[in-house]
Amino acid sequence: MDAQDARQQVITSEGGPRDAGPAAGPARRLRATAVGGVAVLLWASLALFTTLTGRIPPFQLTAMAFAVGGLIGLPRALRGGAALARGLPAGAWVLGVGGLFGYHFFYFLALRNAPPVDAGLIAYLWPLLIVVLSALLPGERLRWWHTAGALLGLGGTFLLVTGGQGVHFRGAYLLGYVAAAVCAVVWSVYSVANRRYPQVPTDAVAFFCLATAALAAVAHLLFETTVRPEGWQWLAVLALGVGPVGGAFYVWDHGTKHGDIRLLGTVSYFAPLLSTGLLVATGRAAASWPVAVACVLITGGAMLASAEALRSARRRG
Q: What secondary structure letter does DSSP report for 300?
């Protein structure tokens, strides 16, 4: 396959430009949104699987998990041969690798330089930023219920992460706070700008994952000491690569390119809620009133933001 054939495959894969973006029918768009929502379910298992990996350093864990994530999609990606990778637009490479690696790099930098609760709250502004930035996309209109739903989700996440105790930002952790903010901006820009490349097949995410794994390995060698996984830790690393740190990015890619980006941003707040639920169910966290209130706020926000999309799909699907 030569470069021209590869470019043609990129254009025709996944239904081609006719099926991409906001122009797709409401029912088809809702299905793509549901596919993207699978990523939220997978991200909910991130905390649980990460705790099972023990003391493996974050960049080492990222390199291992993304290597698994890239390998699971590589057979499909290689059907186009090396020319498929060469045929991808340069902007898609920068966006894909920059989004995946940039998010994790700045997230870990934030955790190293600020309290985890503070850093986590700032970093988790990305769903709200996705909803706001979606107004810049052609054919998208930001309505009050989208913003209100995202703000309810943010409020629920605040309760969930802080346990109702509040946070106290301090100047000594400024570097960590800035890194967390950059982290939120990187992921929201990646998710929204991904709509610019509907012709790039989701199979290409395998290349982005492998490139991210290579960059994370370099960061690991520069900043960390290698820890050899033992026993069940290998299975936890494999689960991360198949699920939240690997496989999730394939369905997120499809959802952000062809689904309702505003709704995806809002339902993303379910990830920390479901994650806490898994930790409670496995005895690694305790149930509390903030969890119950967060459930009401996040669910209410998602229902508010999705009402229009569901009605439109029923009328015209």
A: H
Q: Map residue 268 onto helix, strand or coil.
A: coil
Please, what's the b/e burial string for 38-47 (b: 16 or more CB within 10 A of its CB; e: otherwise)? bbbbbbbbbb
Contact 73, 206 (CB under 8 A): yes
Sequence-distant (6+) residues with CB within 8 A of 232 are 52
CB atoms within 10 A of CB 190: 22
Instruction: Please give the DSSP secondary-structure letter assigned to residue 200.
Output: S
163: left (phi over 0), alpha (psi -120 to 50) or beta: left
> Is this model's pTM higher than 0.90 or not?
no
CA distance 10 to 201: 6
Q: Judge whether 130 and 107 are in contact, CB under 8 Å.
A: no
Return the pLDDT at 82: 59
- Report pLDDT digits (tens) over 40-91: 999 999 988 998 999 999 999 999 999 999 999 999 888 866 556 677 899 9
For residue 294, give both structure tokens.
């967060």
Rg from Cα positions in the chain: 19
How far from chain centre, in Å, is Cα 104? 10
In the chain, count H helices and then E strands: 16, 0
Asked if 26 contacts 206 with a C-beta cutoff of 8 angstroms, the reply is: no
Only one residue has tokens 């941003």, namely 265
Tokens of 158: 């605040």
Contact 173, 113 (CB under 8 A): yes
Q: Which of 220, 208, 17 is nearest to 94 (CA)?
A: 208
Do 294 and 150 meet the contact criterion of CB atoms below 8 Å apart? no
Closest CA to 265 of 124, 128, 141, 123: 128
Q: Which amino acid, 269?
A: Y
Residues 43, 248: contact at Cβ < 8 Å?
A: yes
Q: Please give the average per-residue pLDDT across 124-129, as a whole number.
A: 88
For residues 284 and 71, give the distance between their C-alpha atoms in angstroms, rounded to a whole number. 31
Measure CA 203 to chain center. Answer: 16
